[in-house]
Amino acid sequence: MPSSAMAASVKLGSKPDAFRRQGQAWFCTTGLPSDVTVEVGDMSFHLHKFPLLSKSAILEQLIEESSDQVESIIKLNDIPGGAKSFEMVARFCYGVKIELSSANVVCLRCASEHLQMTEEISDDNLIAQTEMFLNQVVLRNWKDSLKALETCDDLLPHAEDLHIVKRCIESLASKATTDPNLFGWPIREHGIMQSPGGSVLWNGISTGARPRNFSSDWWFEDASSLSFPMYKRLISGMESRRIRPEIVAGSLTYYARKYLPGLNRRNSMGIMPPVATLSDIEQKNLLEEIDRLLLVQKGLVPTKVLLGMLRVSMILKASSTCVSNLEKRVGMQLDQASLEDLLLPNYSYTMETLYNVECMRRILEHFLAMDQANGGASPCMDDMMASPSIIPITAVARLLDGYLAEIAPDVNLKPPKFQALASAVPEYARPLDDGLYRAIDVYLKAHSWLSEAEREQLCRLMDCQKLSLEACTHAAQNERLPLRVVVQVLFFEQLQLRTSIAGCLLVSDNLEGSRPLRSGMAMSGEAGGWSTAVRENQVLKVGMDNMRMRLAELEKECSDMRQEISKLGRGGKSSGGWASHVPRKFNLKMKPQMCSAQEGSVSQQQKSMSAKLDKLQAKLSKQKKQLSADA
What we know:
Elements: E1 9-12, E2 19-22, E3 25-28, E4 36-40, E5 43-47, H1 49-53, H2 57-65, E6 72-75, H3 82-94, E7 98-101, H4 105-114, H5 126-136, H6 142-151, H7 158-161, H8 164-176, E8 201-202, E9 205-206, H9 220-223, H10 228-240, H11 245-259, H12 280-293, H13 303-315, H14 320-332, H15 339-342, H16 357-373, H17 390-407, H18 415-422, H19 434-446, H20 452-459, H21 469-476, H22 483-523, H23 529-571, H24 578-586, H25 602-630
Parallel strand pairs: 3-5, 4-6
Antiparallel strand pairs: 1-7, 2-3, 4-5, 8-9
Helix pairs in contact: 3-4, 4-5, 6-8, 8-10, 11-12, 13-14, 14-16, 17-19, 21-22, 22-23, 22-25, 23-25
């Protein structure tokens, strides 16, 4: 909110100040001895009867009741605002100058009502003066309305009975729900006076300058200065005026960040102005109240803020309903979360794991339930990968794989819990299983005492056919993987090599066939033909260079594959052909068109594989020569 001008005020009375204080007593130095003492709490006021009874029906009655006493003493312990309030009332009764402002008008309005300072007793009495100032000055101004509402906290239920709270809230709600850019209000709280046309005013004269624009959150900081009961009523008043839910959520988030220090411990969430620190119980109650006010709707609050609130709710031991609601909100937009924010520490002494894995599991369940309800993609769809509906769950799968890799080093994380979390997302959510392989590898490294059966059970989580060539190369040399998995990786790595080589040959043929066309275009006399040909030749050159590098990589991979096959052949001499035993012994899930294992001896199978590799090597050499000739 931009800085505003000084608060509005009105001066009442004309006489000079005749009041002086001595310790806990006030005296009116008019030259006449005091004939009545008014006690308000531990403060005493030595005054005169006539000015008091001429303005207040209650004081007139009390003075009359004490008239038979030698020294009239009146006790006013229940006056709204206490001694400070009665001091200003007494000054008003004497006609001494006082200043009405948004900071004291509510107090004086309640006190004057309590003392029955009506027009029947005296013209232009205090009730009429304060009521006029409220309606004509305070309630027309944002800052003054806000200040008046703040003072109502100490004046309940009197301010409530006089409908001051309601009027202040209605004034604030109407201003907050109206875009200040749409109207040229002469409103002081926006820092500068504006003409009806919207230009800046100076001494009532239009300067022609245009005022600055304001965003919809201009009132967040001001509203956060209210106590939560008043703030809650203000939000309710705005909602009744159909303010947009995202604006309400933004204000609630601002309020939470201001009074919950745990939300501001990360610099990325911004720096909030220092405020009085609430106790843990007060923070817990505040968080639960804010949770009740927030709609359970996707996108209203940034995921980072929601996860921060969830973290604080665990620290403060908020109610299970509050925690569950926050988990549900995070789950609805889990695809927008970051890995760093999802790593919620475990604040419970009864749970062994370093991170709150159960919380992550519940968040994931909320997301999957929402995705299913929204008609998420299924593996039966032919164009599944091209569908926009697959994007969120694919992002969540990547996020989950990263989360698994982070929690995997925890020695207290049991294999069943790791497996349950890893298998929570459907298979189609992972186009590649590289991230899952990395998480499994980290887990196996940190849990080296696992048995062979337990390691095989973990490795069943990933599909070797969905590993990239780089991941296959790493897995083939990974001593932590079971032998069954290594053999599967080697087999599918060979299939990937074959597919990659075929793809390279196809691209090369397409490039060779397109060269005459490009040459013809370069020789054409059309405008711009030469520059187009130059650009295409540059692209072609880059493509040829990339293909040379790829062919070199494939040659190395073929060589490594030959060595692996030789090792397997030597190890399987006593039990028949390795190719015939791999599918049966290791239970490979292969499509019929991808491989055809033949029965035979070890030597025949090795010769067959070697012949195929020789043929593959010859194709690579031929392609390399062809590329050199084309260049």
